[in-house]
Structures are given as structure tokens and as C-alpha cells.
Amino acid sequence: MASPAARSASSRTVPARPNTAFRQLRGRLSPGEFAAAVRRSAREIGEQVSCDARYVGRVESGEIRCPNYAYERVFRHMFPGLTLPDMGFAPREAVRGRGARTAAVSAAPLATDPDHRDTRIQICEESDVLRRAFITGGPAAALGFAALHPIEAAAAAASDRVPPPRPPAGGRAGAAEATAVEQAVRHIRLLDDRHGAEGIYHRATQPLRAAYDLLEADVRHRSVADRLHTGAGELAISVGWLAHDSGRFDDARSHYAEALATARVCGDAALEAHAFCNTAFLARDAGRPREAVRAAQAGQQAAKHLASPRLLSLLALREAGGWAGLADRSGCEQALARAERLFASGPRDSDPEWMTFYGEAELAGLEAQCWSALGDAGRAAEHAHRAVALQDPHFTRNIALFTAELAADLAADGAPEEAAAAGLRVLALLTQVRSARIRTLLTTTAHTLRPHHTLPPVADFLSRHAAAGARDGEAAAQVVGVG
Known about the structure:
By secondary structure, this protein is mainly alpha-helical. The chain has helices spanning 4-11, 20-26, 31-44, 53-61, 69-78, 92-96, 98-106, 128-136, 139-142, 149-157, 175-195, 201-214, 222-245, 249-266, 269-285, 289-303, 309-325, 329-343, 360-373, 377-390, 396-412, 416-429, 436-449, 456-482. The radius of gyration is 24 Å and the shape is globular. Helix 3 packs across helix 4 (53-61) and helix 19 (360-373) packs antiparallel against helix 20. The protein is built from 24 helices and no strands. Among the domains are: 4-122, no CATH class; 145-267, no CATH class; 390-483.
């Protein structure tokens, strides 16, 4: 068996992987220009870092797996809303844990490297920057979307005009612009997975407009034009989802329709299926269950040649949600059975990138919603329990959502104390997540539990829920005052 020293030494020889995410954040700045921007940002928050082009190169090459705390504070200031992993760095605990600390103590050269001095210290920091931003409320405070700026810059470079409706005069767009759009979609989805839609939606509409401006640019290669259309359509769906989850149903419907039109223009069946999938979900939430069934069926038609059973499974679940809204138990059960059968076929390389959220937890959560709509609270609670237990910790918003659904189902099923306990867990998560859907579920649960207010757990939940509602009202007032 290898000695601890040998294991520590081997851990330091892991081949470096290029940090492509950080390179994307640098955009079109040279390493020297970016280093100057880092130093300026450091001065803004009272930090001192000796960043130069060499340091930027070491980060982008993967040599620096995780920055020291001073650099971390500067990078968080430059790119609010992004965590170290979002920027392409290894989580601090992965390089600052006991093994890393042992390696640092046994390797004297590290002590003289200013970028690695703090490897001697094991400190577990929470994401205070994100937490403070979402507690105080307000889209501008919540995140800066610095990672999305390349899209706006690309749109400006591809167009010489000021009035947005007019086509660019001789502007061109290429692979870099297509990549910027695709990267924006990924960042929006990542932030939504962790924090919900509120606070993100209005900021995300800016890069969406820029992405559609790029479609008017001169593109020399068909492959790039296809990427731009698909990227713009996926961005429209992502922004539509932010509107949807924020309770802005009319805005969401408009964005989904825009994505569907884009899919039809460029003949992209995968984008069309995605647009119909989200349209079906929106129709169900907006109280139009028959439209939900039709949209889900149209999505299945678009997706039938895409070789993705998981996509067809999700579309079948969307159809099941529509049937449940129509109180058609037979139609719902048939669609659920089809969804489960298709899901069991397993993932495929041809599954769309946006479907990373769709695992066993999501399957169970959507089934819970169907049983709840059909009035079977007990069965809904069973599936909601499973959804919470199986959810990947990365999807903080979904953990909060499924737990809120569990609370509502338990309350409806006559288990007030268990419902209150689940509701309290959701309130704790709402320091990190902002979602109108989740708050609505909690309000429903509170209403159902009021007759049981003499039970201590229920009284605690009702009190904390009321306090949280007051804080949300104050935050909303602040946003209106600023905006």
C-alpha cells in the first residue's frame, strides 16, 4: 500500500486540464489587458493582487486549479453570480482538504509560491456573495452576467447600426459569436438550477436581444449560421423558462413562440421539440390543460426521429400533466406508463444537452405533480419523497421545489406536522433560491395548515412563513424604488 507521502505526491502530479471556462470569461481581451482589469477590480474592493499575463496563462492552462482567497474575492467581484466551479476552477474543498494540506506541508516549495500559500490552511467558505445578493433582492444586485457580455460585444461588432431593427451594414459573425451564445445558455441554466429564475429574468433578456441581432449578421458558413439559430432559439427557451418560473406567463409564452418560430425557420427538430416541451409545461401551469396535451403530442412528433428515448419520456410526462389537469386519470396513467418505459431505455449520446436535469428525481417529481392534480395526495407524497431523496445537490432550485411539493402533498394528505417540517426546510433553502412557483406552493401549504396552528411545528412554520413573506415584500419594494 502506498504511503501517505507517496499518495500526496501522486496527487500533485495529476495532468493539468485547460480551463476553458475561464478563457471564455476573458473574452476578446489579451492576457495582459485582462490582468490589468483584474488589478483594477482588486483595487475597487481593497485587495492587492500582482496579476499579470503569466498568471492568466497559468490559470487558463489549468496549472492553477484553484485561486487563493484574495484572487477568489476579486474574481467573484468581477463575475458576480458565478462560483469557482462556474469559472472552471476545482472546488476549494477538492484542493484544500486534508490530503491537499498534507501535501502542502510536505512540499516546501509550495510555501514560497504566493499563489499556493494558502494551501496550508483548510478553510471551508460558503458562497456568501451569492447569498447576500439573493437575500437583498433586485436583479442588478443578484448577478452581473459578466459571462454573457461577449454576446453583446459580438452583436455590436457584427453590426454597424444603432437602431436595432435594421440589419448590420457589412457586419460578420463567426464561430466565436456562436460559442458566446451557447455559453450564455449554459450560464443561465446553471444559475437557474442553483437559484431559481427571479432576479435573473430581466438581465437575461439583454443577451437574448443581442443573440437575435446576430442572426442579421453576415455569416459565411452554413454550420455557423445553424449554430447561431439553434443557440438563439435555446436562449429564447431559457429566458422563457425564467419568465415562466417567475410567474410571468405571457412573457414566457412569447419567448417560447419565438423559439418555435426559429426552429421552424432553420428546420431544427430538436429545438422544435424543446420549444413544444416547455410550451406544454407552461400551458399546464397556466390552466390550459388541453393545450398542454396538444403541445406535448406535437413535441413527440418532432422528436420521433431524434433517437432520444429520454426526450420522448419527458414529453410523455408533459402530456400526462395535461391529462391530469383535465381530470382524465386513464389518459394520465397511460402517458405515465409510456414515460417510465422510455426512461428505462436509459440515456443516449443523442440526448439534448439541456436535458441534464432529467433524471430519476425529476421523473418522480413530475409524477408527484400528476397525482396531486388528480387529487391523490398520498400517492403524490410518496413520489415527492422519492424526488427529494434522489435529487442531485447541484439542482438547489429543484430540491426546494420538490420539498415544497412534498409539504403541500403532506398537508393535503392529513400529515400537518410532517408538512410543516418540510415547509421549514424549504424556507431555509429560500435564502438561496428565488422562485414564484415555490412561494406559491408554500402559501398553499400555509393555508391548508392554519387549522392546525396549535401544533408547535405548524405554529413555527406559519410564523416563519409570514416573516419570509414580509421580507419578500420589502425586497420587492426596494426593487421598484431602484428601477
